[in-house]
Amino acid sequence: MTDELAWLRERLADRVVAANDIGSDLVAGALRAVPRHLFLPGLPPEAAYRDDAIVTKRDTSGQPVSSSSQPAMMAIMLAQLHLVPGQRVLEIGAGTGYNAALIRHIVGPVGLVVSIDIDTELADRAREHLASAGYPDVAVLAADGAEGCAAYAPFDRVIATVGVSDLAQAWLDQAGETARIVVPLDVGGIQLSVAFGRIGRHWASRSLAPCGFMRIRGSLGGHDRIVSPEPGLAVILYDGRDVNPVALAAALAGSPTEQPAGVEAGPAQVSWSLGLWLATREPRWCTVRAQGGPSGGPPEAPRLPACPPAAFGIVDDDGIAVLSPPGATGSQPLCATGFGPGAARLAADLAAQVRAWDEAGRPGVAGLRVDAYPRSAPDQPCLLGDELVIERPATRFVMYRT
Ligand SMILES: C[S@@+](CC[C@H](N)C(=O)[O-])C[C@H]1O[C@@H](n2cnc3c(N)ncnc32)[C@H](O)[C@@H]1O
What residues are paired with 184 via a beta bridge? Predict the structure, then answer.
């Protein structure tokens, strides 16, 4: 390893630790030790040691299906996982294998790391990367991670590096008595990295952090409805909702109606705090994103603001209203733009939600809790009435503020 590579690694670790509340010397030490460039062959080392997520595989429509996640996000989640040497860890989403190597560095040779990827080609590559970086003992499996890995259970820690809207029964069954489970929990397209610990037969959140991962595929895959009213544009609806794509396309062909919200906000507050507010309170909630054509090329110019990763909106049978996202930096005025026969009403409703969020103090993760009740267990939540209950096939989630 050359001095320059060691310097790049040190600099990445320093920046991640300085900019985030990592609070774990073990995680910082792993960032300093594991050579990320070996997990991203073909990429110049300077790029491999930036604190960026790097897409490593796309599907035929150009959508990313695998990436090396942003190192800061990995560090935050590994700190949430409370890793110590000797533990047995299950990772869902091997990807490049880099995160598995960070985990293996911390748990050491007496620990165990099993990492699963649903994509055989990616699993093969991850195995090669791990061997080249000096971690050939990480077990990389090509399978649907929703099944976990009974052969190596029980696990002290389970981590998913893909967005999930449910906890697989296998993860709960294969988690030891004092286990922690960390997953990017997807609530209507907005994700929270939640660290769960057991309380009797249910699980309670120990920490939460905003995050953004690609969604899990396979048997736990989401059932979001993706409507494409015009080339290059995807409108995503959640929890079984649907909308007529022809009516939506007709709505978009009409003149827009703008409704300034009278609120300014920056991208981080919009993309997470306002997003969670809308996703959990607005039954007409949708997200809008640009999508590449079949060639994977750039989308044709869409009429709606569909900035990456997504713009926020509300949609019903009478049209759609979308929030103009602020630019990449700084605070900007938010404006709802409506289309269709219901344009004015939808834009006014969306702007009103933005003001309600602002008046409520723009709630963040502080004081937010998520408890998970496996359907297989007899424990029932004791509800006071102000909780949000999210019903999923394997788990009932209860979200509330303390
Ligand atoms: C964001 S990447 C993971 C990044 C990885 N941990 C790393 O360090 O590079 C998400 C990965 O999850 C995988 N994946 C998606 N659905 C899966 C499933 N059901 N089981 C296992 N892996 C899955 C994808 O193929 C993709 O490689």
Answer: 193
- Alpha carbons 177 and 43: distance in angstroms, whole number: 42
Q: Counting beta carbons within 10 angstroms of the beta carbon of residue 5, is it exposed (0 to 12), middle (13 to 18) or buried (19 or more)?
A: middle
**Cα 35 off chain centre by:** 24
pLDDT at 105 over 60: yes
| Ligand 1 contact, 258 CB (< 6 A) | no
Distance in angstroms (rounded) separating the CA atoms of residues 199 and 208 = 17
Q: Closest Cα partner for 50 from 111, 112, 109, 8?
A: 8
Q: Please indicate whether residue 191, judged by its CB atom, sits closer than 6 Å to ligand 1.
A: no
Question: 134 in the Ramachandran plot: left (φ > 0), alpha (ψ -120 to 50) or beta?
Answer: left
The residue to mutate among 38, 66, 141, having the most atoms of ligand 1 within 8 angstroms of its beta carbon, is 66
DSSP state of 119: -
3-state secondary structure of 382: coil
**pLDDT above 90 for 23:** no
* Residues shown for the chain: 402
Ligand 1 atom nearest the C-alpha of 91 is: 6
Task: Tell me the one-letter amino acid at 183.
Answer: V
Residue type at position 158: V
Nearest to 53 by CA among 37, 28, 71, 77: 71
CA–CA distance, 365 with 76 (Å, rounded to integer): 14
Cα distances (Å, whole numbers) of residue 104 to 85, 123, 374: 9, 16, 29
pLDDT at 293 over 50: no
Q: Tell me, using a 6 A CB cutoff, whether residue 168 lines ligand 1.
A: no
CB 267 within 8 A of CB 332: no
Which pTM does this prediction carry?
Answer: 0.93
Element (H, E) at 178: strand 175-187
- CA 218 to ligand 1: nearest atom: 19
Can you read off the two tokens belonging to residue 121? 């080609």
- Higher-scoring residue by pLDDT: 304, 137: 137
